[in-house]
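[SOLVED] Predicted holo structure with flavin mononucleotide

Edit: marking solved, answer below. Original request kept for reference. I posted the sequence and ligand SMILES and asked for the 3D complex as structure tokens.
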Amino acid sequence: MLGLRAILCRAVSSSPASNRARTAADVDLKVKVGSLPFRNPILAASGTFGYGIEFANLVDLGKLGGFVTKGLSREPIAGAPAPRLCETPSGMLNAVGLQNVGVRAFVEQKLPVLRKFDVPVIANVFGYCQEDYVEVIRALEGADGLVGYELNISCPNVKKGGLQFGGDPVMAAEVTAAARKAAVKRPLWVKLSPLVADIGLMARTVEAEGADALTIANTYPAMAVDFRRQKSRLGNQTGGLSGPAIKPITLRLVWEAWKTVKIPIIGLGGIESASDVLDYISVGATCVQVGTASFIDPEVSERLTGQLRSTCFESNLFTINELKGRFSAEIG
Ligand SMILES: Cc1cc2nc3c(=O)[nH]c(=O)nc-3n(C[C@H](O)[C@H](O)[C@H](O)COP(=O)(O)O)c2cc1C
């Protein structure tokens, strides 16, 4: 099926009308998450790309699909004790504890700088209680320079909030409904926890409360110890597992959710290569986010865009959208 389409497309594109054969540069990577357009489907993930500004000297921000800010809270958060990161086989554990400057400092100090770059910015919103989420969104509503909000109801590294919301459909529904009311100006994405028995239920629940898109998923609660010292390898004792180790698990979650909701899904977990991106899109993701891979190579998101064009071209895909959900459709 894909092969026939490719032959037809090539025949058309090499006709006298277009006057030349297509190349990888012609692959159309544009995607839309609901009403939001992105130049390509690769966004940098929350917590792994700072406030974007820190990466501006390393990466051409204008080449990214977009990025999601560090989690923003009502008041500044000092975060968890060191060490905050440790490497594990095929992955990484983190317990940063949502350290951030607080939403007011973000609006006053970071956003004015960010506005100078041609890159869509999504604000990741965090709270210890429902009112916190609402207050953070209210503080952002009055500011220019953002295209949307991502509600983090799934952080495993804080004692209050986070997973409490993401693990309970009733609480997830309530916080989504409250945030939806506050988020008048911009689309609202909800970032789900992978630690649920039925991802379809959580996905449908937040969709019903007005979420415009789902981000699937956050990190997996985990730990790493040094038995010789009888100590955890993280100051917080436990943390969140990310990186290639989680990709197969999260990929299934995206697929399960895609079968049950109509709103777009942003897939993330362990993406390192163009094939990883296309795997997520084939099970139903509209676009993806890249997290841990930025720690190994800060330029990974920019580089992946080029690789994605070549990989699509080699796979006879001329628009990224034609792959979306194809996996499910074809296994019947
Ligand atoms: C150091 C670190 C900090 C993170 N901070 C946040 C955060 O503030 N808010 C959030 O929603 N997710 C946060 N995450 C989760 C990532 O956005 C992403 O969901 C997760 O790492 C899985 O993707 P990956 O395997 O590509 O890293 C963080 C992850 C890491 C590694």
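OP edit: DSSP finds eleven helices and 16 strands in the chain. Thanks to everyone who chimed in.
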